[in-house]
Design goal:
The chain has 316 residues and is α/β, with parallel strands linked by helices. It has helices at residues 9-23, 32-51, 56-63, 71-78, 120-125, 133-149, 166-170, 173-186, 201-205, 226-233, 240-247, 251-256, 275-295, 298-310; strands at residues 79-84, 97-104, 107-114, 153-159, 191-200, 212-216, 220-222, 262-264.
């Protein structure tokens, strides 16, 4: 069954009514097909009106929708011959970070993504997409492998942030994130990162320091979650909506501030309503970015990547 967000309740009632009418047998004097068509038209108008004026906090809810396609859906939908590689060669294999070798439309690549899981069992297995140090060390290993063999890197980001547990801190979480960022920035190969859901804090930046950073229309990307920001600034997590507004975390905001390179449109009602179309759109956006990056020599590409990130925050 489709899951509805709080602000989608009017849509839920309409679509429930449509399903109810479709299950009915033809009553005398009533044309069911016409009534269903009328309700569908009303539902689409309501959906369009709702998503045309989403607040930043509502965007956060859409980005976290449980039915939104996850990293594994992008890896399986966009790559052929995908071979996962596990472990950080130091401690363990972190299931929150999935990565390996594959082909993107015929082009050999190294691809990775933070996986949140789709049900209770898989969410626990993947630690809700929150990587520990070994996950970021795995990412670093994959990027260095890509550099060694001249393979472009694709990164799909969807995480609330790095895991904040005491075990992660004990194993050097901050250092692992910093080293992952360094590996991305210093890689001699093209890197394309796509924030497909939630991009939270350094845990997201560690996987998104690329030549091209893209975001899905209803994804969010921020230094801290709205709840965390509200707890710090207002000492009340209930002020999350106010914090979301202040953080400027939507794709439109970030594109306007030139912190990302492209916004990828989603199907009406969000990626969760049509995952296949969303994955195809992401694939087209990645494919469009590749020719320019592949045509550059690595010295030019690295210099432009450096300038891209140094320019962020400069006045004017």
């Amino acid at each position: 069954m489709r899951q509805y967000l709080d602000f989608e309740k009017p849509l839920a009632e309409l679509e429930s009514k449509i399903d109810e009418w479709r299950r009915m047998t033809e009553p005398g004097g009533i044309n069911i097909a016409d009534e269903v068509a009328r309700l569908r038209d009303k539902s689409e108008k309501q959906l369009r009106a709702t998503y045309a004026k989403l607040s930043p906090w509502q965007q956060v809810q859409v980005a976290r929708h449980p039915d939104r396609p996850k990293a594994t859906a992008y890896l399986s939908g966009l790559l052929t011959d995908f071979t996962p590689l596990g472990g950080d060669r130091g401690f363990a294999d972190d299931a929150a970070l999935i990565g390996g070798l594959g082909r993107f439309r015929g082009q050999p690549v190294v691809a990775m993504g933070t996986e949140r899981g789709t049900d209770t069992e898989s969410r626990v297995k993947h630690n809700f997409g929150m990587a520990r140090p070994e996950g970021y060390r795995k990412a670093r290993r994959l990027v260095e492998l890509a550099g060694r063999f001249g393979l472009p890197v694709l990164s799909f980001v969807d995480t609330a942030g790095a895991f904040p547990g005491i075990d992660a801190e004990a194993r050097g979480q901050a250092e692992a994130i910093a080293r992952a960022i360094e590996a991305f920035l210093m890689a001699p190969v093209p890197i394309i990162a796509v924030v497909v859901g939630e991009g939270g804090s350094g845990g997201a930046i560690a996987l998104a320091a690329g030549d091209r950073v893209m975001m899905l229309e209803h994804a969010v990307y921020s230094v801290i979650s709205p709840e965390g920001c509200a707890s710090i600034l207002w000492r009340d997590a209930a002020a999350a909506a106010q914090a979301a507004e202040a953080l400027r975390l939507t794709a439109a905001d970030l594109l306007r501030m030139r912190l990302i390179d492209r916004l990828i449109a989603e199907p009406l009602g969000g990626a969760h309503r049509d995952p296949e179309a969303t994955i195809a759109s992401v694939g087209d956006a990645v494919a469009a970015a590749f020719p320019e990056l592949l045509a550059m020599d690595h010295v030019t590409r690295m210099a432009r990547r450096e300038e891209k990130f140094l320019a962020m925050g400069r006045a004017g």
